[in-house]
Give the backbone structure.
Amino acid sequence: MRSSVNAIIKILAIFQLGFRFIFDYIVGRRIFLRGEKMLGCGCFSWSRVSDLMQPESEYFSLPDPIPQWPPGSGFATSRITLGELEVCQITKFQYIWGCNLSKDGKQGVSFYKPIGIPDGFFCLGHYCQSNEKPLRGFVLVAREAAKQQDCCTLKSENMPALQNPVDYSLVWSSHDGIDESFDGCGYFWLPQPPEGYKALGFLVTNKSEKPDLEEVKCVRADLTCTCEACGLIADTHSKSSNIPLLIWGTRPLHRGIYGRGVSVGTFYCSSYWNTREEVNIACLQNLDLNLRAMPNMDQIHALVRHYGPTVFFHPDEVYLPSSVSWFFRNGALLYSRSNSVGQAIDAEGSNLPSGGTNDREYWIDLPCDSARENVKHGNLESAKLYLHIKPALGGTFTDIAMWVFCPFNGPGTLKVGMMNIALSKVGQHVGDWEHFTLRISNFTGELWSIYFSQHSGGEWVDAFDLEFIEGNKAVIYSSKNGHASFPHPGTYIQGSSKLGIGVRNDAARSDHIVDSSRQYEIVAAEYLGDGVVKEPGWLQYMREWGPKIIYDSRKELDKIIKVFPPPVKYSMENICNKLPLELYGEEGPSGPKEKNNWIGDERW
Ligand SMILES: *[C@@H]1O[C@H](CO)[C@@H](O)[C@H](O)[C@H]1NC(C)=O
Ligand SMILES: *[C@@H]1O[C@H](CO)[C@@H](O)[C@H](O)[C@H]1NC(C)=O
């Protein structure tokens, strides 16, 4: 078997020389083919495995141990049944091979296999991550679940859920085809599934022999769903003289509350340039519609009390949050196109029009009298986080979306190089809804990451990159005026950070805080069933929380742009055209249920 593998490697090596030629031609470099004899595995970056290469594999753990959660059905029991398969999350790994992508060895990636797999469970693929962060990730391992009466279709009766691959194909190797020794290089294998099955991950070895067919299982196709590559982990094309290898993380294509796709935690790799190619591994699918692993009401309260972050508003913030009831009780008014006289709103918002879609027929506005300024500045004492609890990634994670309401969103500040231009109107609007989201593993109840929503986009931040204020409670910084959320203090430019032009977001600690572990209200958790959470009246209000702005915000920007010399002017125009529409504030903002991440996944 070894000799045929060696033949494949030789062929790959020939291919690689051809590729290298083309690549060098493209970048206009002079080619010194073999000019410099390279050592070991043939390239300066994908070097031979050595003790040096092995990262110190420090596992990340949250500042505090995870508490005992209140009893329930399936939450935090370490195993989840997805229908015919039972899966278990493995977070302990053994190092197999790694490589170095920078001369100082700081950038690199390592590949691992899961260890401590419980009896009867099988590996579905290996794990990979960058060396720049502490070792933290998971892969799922699986076994056939005990048959449940309500889940088995006739079709599956003769076909087991899991089967060995029939063979492996070598996707890539770090061997240069020149060196005599093959050991110590990295080899990437794609399991070849039997007919009707799919591979869920790749295997990596540090020897040229094909892995044993028992090393990994393939899953029956109807228990899987489409997977997509996301988050490039490594791209070697500029560093290596080998055939390039691109490595991505994976996630299910269909996500959100009703998405049934389950992340397996494996990586995807390809040696082609074309990132649009179809991903040839699959994700799992949760066919158990009961979502038994989701937390019950007691468990939700325990999670929020344990993880609820502290939200810091900027020390110079003048547009602070308030509770929705405070906003209503202190003079907010409902207007409609058919009624130009503002109507008072009761504390629960029960007289707001309910349901439907945003037809721009209704909007809320600040009071017109002396109360106006008061309402605009919010009321920190009454402020709280409004919580939407929902399943993520097929019910293997719980998302706790935390919404905060500010009666008013202040105008933006444009930053051009060293200059700050405070805008008088652009960006400001009445009725600002912002959120961040905790993603908690259903296997253990561990906080996995937090999503920080920033205007029309946002980012997931892994737990090890969070600031913690007390125990496992993280810190959220809400930016001045705009209330976008950030994991660390500082000044963030939305626009082109390269050109130094964009809208400025300032985040810092202050005494203006809302502690979400105490100041919260659960407003929705659809999966618990109808009526378990009583949704407040205002949540059903699908129209605008602020009036349509009548001034021409573009005019204000254009006036500023005009002053600059042509090259800067040009980039500024470009950036202003790309700024999120809501920053111009021409339409009033919508409430939480109108946002597409209410049902869908966050934007990432
Ligand atoms: C090669 O991989 C095996 C696991 O498959 C691992 O035990 C071994 O330590 C690796 N060798 C090196 C030199 O890292
Ligand atoms: C990474 O590669 C550089 C250059 O080959 C080498 O000097 C360095 O020691 C390597 N780092 C590690 C951690 O292997």
